[in-house]
Amino acid sequence: MNSDLEALLKAAHYAARQHKDQKRKGANAEPYIVHPLEVAKLLSTIGGVDDPDVLIAAILHDTIEDTDASENDIAKIFGERVCSIVMEVTDDKSLPKQRRKELQEEHAPHLSHEAKQLKMCDKISNISDIVSNPPADWDLERKLEYVEWGERVFAGLRGANGKLEKHFDELVERAKRDLI
User: Fold this and answer.
1) Which CATH class is domain 3-179?
2) Looking at the annotation, which residues are catalytic?
3) Do residues 171 and 128 make contact, with C-beta atoms less than 8 angstroms apart?
4) pLDDT tens, 56-111?
5) What's the whole-model pTM score?
């Protein structure tokens, strides 16, 4: 078997185990692993990204933030480059939620090219969920606020992948039309 494929499958298995008891916030509470797999799929199918390290980082992008996986674990198992990309998109959960959101906006323009593309797909996935499968307790105002915040983060990511930018812009246009 191709070593890149083996590494991708190893990452998918690792992430699935790490996120095994987690569900997405959407009303249908799908298994959390669907999200990182979708982020990797978006990178590949829409963004045209074929760098295995970036795709692996996409699959692992929430493990440090949302599970007991550590930076050291990711570096040791998947290498320093993958770990570096994951760390660029990892929020510091010790900070209040509002501050984490502000930092995403502030840091977006300074991410590496690889991390910017990953973050683009993360925002695409999350906004898609807000439209098609929002949390049951989110009212229209909260959904629109999330989409607008996503636009502000995405503004700092522009220039990294035109195909993902086009997809995002179409998604936001659809989201605003469908939500209102």
Assistant:
1) mainly alpha
2) 65-66
3) yes
4) 999 999 999 999 999 999 999 999 999 999 999 999 999 999 999 999 999 999 99
5) 0.96
